Amino acid sequence: MGWFWAETAPSAPAVAVAPHSMPRGNAEPPPSCPMHKKASPPAKTDVPAGACPYVPPTAASDASPSLAVEEPKQGLLSRLNPLNNMFYELDNSKASIQTQDLPLSREQSTIPKADGSLWEYPSPQQMYNAMLRKGYTDTPVDAVESMVSVHNFLNEGAWAEIMGWERRFSKGIAEGYRICKQGEERANRALGTADDPFDTTTWTDASIPPPKLLRFTGRPTEPTPKATIMQWVGSVMPEEYSTAPPFDRHDWFVQRCNEKGCKEVRYVIDYYEGPPEETGEPVFFLDVRPAVDGPTSAAERLVRWGTDIFWKASGGEARILKKVEQARLAREEEANARKRQYN
User: What is d(CA 239, CA 27) in angstroms, rounded to the nearest whole number?
Assistant: First the structure.
C-alpha cells in the first residue's frame, strides 16, 4: 500500500505475503489516505529541499527578461507531487494535540525510482500529521507506528510480486514461457529466488537493468474486474469462494527495459486482509498482476498461471522424478557392468 509514500533525498498474493511478526495496530489504511485522491500535475516551479526528485520544467535561461513570468498556483493541486499524489513537503513536527512523541526517522524501501535512488517511506510523525490534516483527529497516537510498519511491509510485498513478474517476462513472452513451463517452484529455482520467492532485490540478468517504480496511484473506490468477479462468484458459492472485498486497490507504473528499449507497464494490486494468526498477528494477501492493457499483458498472465496449473495437473513433477530415478538406475547398472567386466 503506497497510499502514503513521500520522499526526501534519493532515498509493498492472491498470493499470500508471509505473515511476518508485526504489531497488530490498525492494519486497514485510513480513508484519509492522500493517495486515494486524484490530482493533476503541479504547476509550481520551485521544488523545496528534500522533495521528490521530479522537477517541473522551468523557464529557459536565455528567455527574454521582458517576458512576464506567471505566478505559481497556490491551490491544493499545485502542491501535490504527480508521482504519488502527496505533498512535496510533509510536516514532521509534533502536533499540538499530540500526547506522546512519535519517531521522526524514515525507512528507506528497496524499491528504485526512475533516477535510480530508492523510494522512502514516511515517518510515523508525518503520517500522523497528514491524518490530522484530513480531519481524523481520533487516530490513536500509539497505533501510528504499527500502521507505518504494516504500510511498509505491504509495499515491500507488492514490489516482491512485481519483481517476480519482471524476472519472468522482461525479455518477452517466449522467454517467459521457457522459465514458467515447469511450474512456479522450478521457475523460482531457475531465477535464483527459490529460498525467498519474495526477494525484492535479486536480479541475475546483467544484460538488462532491473525494473523501477515510476509512479503509483490509489483507486480504492474502483474495484478491479477480477475483484468484482470474485465477489460475484463468492455470492453464488459462498462456502467455497466467499471472501471480504479488497480493502484497497493500487495501480503501479513500472519501467521495464530489455534489448528493444524501455516501456511502461501498469500493474494492478488488490489488498486483502485474512483472518489473524492465533498469536494475533495480522495476515494480508496481495493479488498483484499486470493490468490487461493489451495482448502482451494478457498473455503474460495466461502463461504464468496456465503453465503452473498444467504442470501440476499433468503430473509434471512426478515425470521429472521418474526420469531422475531412471537415470540413477542406469548409472548403477553401468557401474555394475564395469565391475563384472573386470572380474
Answer: 26
